[in-house]
Amino acid sequence: MQQAIKPLAVIAAIVFLATIALAGVLSFFELSTFSVATVARDGLILALIISPSVYWLVLLPASQGVGLRSGSESSRLAITDPLTRIMNRRGVTISLLEAMAYAERYENALSLAMIDIDQFDEINNRHGREIGNKVLVEIAAIIGDAVRMPDKMGRYGGEEFMLILPATSAEDAKLISERIAASVTELQIQADEKVRCTVSIGVAQFRKGEDLEQLMSRVADILAQAKKSGNNTVLAE
Length: 237
Known about the structure:
Blueprint: H1 2-28, H2 36-78, H3 89-106, E1 110-117, H4 120-127, H5 129-146, E2 152-157, E3 160-166, H6 170-185, E4 188-190, E5 194-196, E6 199-205, H7 212-228, E7 234-236
Parallel strand pairs: 6-7
Antiparallel strand pairs: 1-3, 1-6, 2-3, 4-5
Helix pairs in contact: 1-2, 4-5, 5-6
């Protein structure tokens, strides 16, 4: 209530002064015969009546709405990668935990694909960070084109992306990953010369009872095996 006193006083003052000003205009054009005292009294009464309604019905809801929108926007930015505009590591972790809990509860399949851009450091060193950033953005777009409605994707860190595939077996997740890998091979980014890219992808299916660390460890191991097999490799457990 104390926070409301100041805006209430401001509103009352505005209404009161507006009433006095309007009365002055009407008096100047001889459209009103009310005395100054009467106008001041009526203006004060009007201010006291109107100001609470303006505050509680207009200003307060508006300010709360701005606060809610601001909070929602802050929450969204906290889980968004600023470069690719997809989820960041935090967003991926939150989404994966939710997907794991759902799969555990309803005994649904859930697969996870970890995607790594092959020789990304070489691309950065040879063509510069600006081109490297373009590669990240373009590959994020390719992954985005491959996802379905319930799927979630994000940049997990550096040149690594994560694809969360609810209600999807490892076999089906591998097919999706292979389509992504094939699309990446067609990507061409113009620099001082055409930059071509490939990705390696590891796919693991969630096992009932395992925690986040165990699932992430398994998919990381599968990705490591894929990269050892050579670039542009998709490997599922």
